[in-house]
Amino acid sequence: MTRTTRSPRSLPGWLLSPGLALALSVLLAIGFGGEAARAGDTDPEDGTASEISKTVEAWGGEESAPEAEATVDPDAPADAGDAEAAGPYRLEELSWVIDSFLAKRDLSGARVGILVESLVTGEVLFARNAGTAMTPASNMKVVTGAAALSILGPNYRFRTEFSTDGAIDGAFLGGNVYVLGSGDPSIVSEELWKIVEEFRLRGIERITGDIVLDASFFDSVAATSDDVANGQRAYHARTGALALNFSSVAVHVYPGSGEGSQPRVALAPGTSFVDVRNEATTGSSRRSSTLSVVRTYASGRNVVTVSGRIPAGSRRTVVYRNLEDPVLYFGTVMKEFLAVAGVAVEGIVRTGPVPSGTALLFTHRSKPLSLVVRDLNKFSNNFVAEQLVKTLGAEMEGPPGTTDSGQLVLGRFLSTAGAASGSYRVFDGSGFSRENRLSPRTIVRVIRRTLDDFETSHEYAASLSVSGTDGTLEDRMGYAGLEGAVRAKTGLLDGVTAIAGIVRTLAGEDILFSIIVNDFRCEAWKVRDMEHAILTSIVSAAPGE
Description:
Strand content: 15-25%
Radius of gyration: 25 Å
Number of helices: 14
Helix content: 25-40%
Shape: globular
Largest sheet: 6 strands, antiparallel
Oligomer: single chain
Number of strands: 23
Structural class: alpha+beta
């Protein structure tokens, strides 16, 4: 990686004296940085997302999950070298920092795994439980993104083919239109509109047949687990070889004209694929919102029910809900967009294979995989992760791509990255499942392997969130010393936090790190304070004699 020395001006002068890390660690231990951590501890339903083209996080982000007990795999063997170590950088105070936090009642019983390692030399600077397999939450995406870039290549593009068994006669296309998907996770409403425009620009005004959707590149199992299958939030990702808007819909609720009136509910995209039941009311402006948005599925229909109260005069509320049957969702909205563009479809939307002998109309190519992985890591998008897992399975093991075949590919990738047997368990690609296991050493080895490869290094580094700047770190570490000094992937489940990536020291050196905390029973921001204290110590560490 290209090195530029960070200016010491980013830290107050008094902090540059000996004992810097210890002093700042004490401040953090009593609450410094807590507000920044709390600000980032958000639910993907907070309604603050911008329009569709900028809502990767809200449509499929993971930074929340149902409550469940976090566990550490007791049978996972530890790698050699797990003893705490201090290399050429003075990091002895990390033991004190960690133990000080774990001594607090809120964090008693928590388990911490950490590895800090020089990117340049590979020398271990600090380790504690570094070889113990733990629940990584969304740090699983560290592996998924790295494997996708390494195996498929940064310039890999998903292809969606549009063909017909008929002929174009003037403004009429006489026959069916077939859509063959390959798992593109990046098609949102704007991209679908570009696709529809291709038909209009070719002068087509009427399609006499059906829209036939071929999603056979993936299997038909849309949910990776029962927890996902029973969930309705956007981060309960449903997969499909043809999918739109991360298999989710945005529900916009606006207060009515006055107290007692019915609010206005609108979907984005507006579609007949979802039935809306508006049972909500507009309440007093002096009372808080009690809105509830529930997506159910019955008799083959997705139903969104809005109930409760929205305060008069308040801003709109936006809630994201996933949808069952993502393939038909894609086709239904495509037909509706065609109608808006002035292209009438006489037939129905259905699924089926593309027959031999069809004529290719055009191919839609996705943005390069490097940008897809950027969405994956910056915004911790579960949907993108699971689409990539099935794509890896389909490309390497043959279609249809399944979660199982993708797991095999990820396992082989981990092995080639040098992960020790027993230091990992792959259950899904997003980290939503508590069955996943990674050790800090495994995570660091994956990051190192990807950064050491010229073909993937720059794209992978750019996919990580920058402290205090963007992605899931936009509202974290935005203060002097850490802002801009950390590139990392975060992870969060109830009782689990994780963060891993690269940190630039004041001496201008790049350090790899992985921190996983399991089994805590307090608010996540309290654990994040410990992460920030650890990272501050690394940033400020001085080379040894």
